[in-house]
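Minutes, project check-in
Item: structure for the 171-residue chain
Input as provided by the requester:
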Amino acid sequence: MSPPRPGRLVNRAYVLRWIKSHDFFVAHGLRDKRWVKLFRQAVERGVHGTGWKPFYMDEAPPAGCELHIFQDYIKHAIRSLDFGIYDLSFKRPNVFLELGTALAFAGKDAYIVFQSGKFSMDNELSDLAGIYRGDCCEYKTFHELTVFIRKNIVRHRRLSSRILPTGPFGK
């Protein structure tokens, strides 16, 4: 299913079906276009071979559609998709809001990632540091992020009885 086209009035049912065609939610800052490209490549390499499709928050309906961007779109995506990856490197308020929304819905796995030197879990999210330490990744390179996704998220989700096609990550 293709994303909503710019300028097209989009009804709620169409958007909900489109969201369901994805598997997991990804939130991150959008300021640096080069960083965004490298980050998304790292995520997509990390889940390569699983068949999982990421939903990025900027894939929102175009301005002017009748849906409220957070209430009708992003919140529904967080609730309905299997898990989320939340990059806190740029300390963007929208990413914190999306992470908080994911944590509020029981049973939603939230994987917190951040680039080394840009964020401190102990100083800036100390209330969550002890709880989410195993589901966090402080990465220096995008390759380290890819490895975290492969070894932690993909492996954990496979072990939690989700049936996935076999791929380059084992049998």
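Outcome recorded: Confidence is low (pLDDT under 50) at residues 161-171.
No further action items on this chain.
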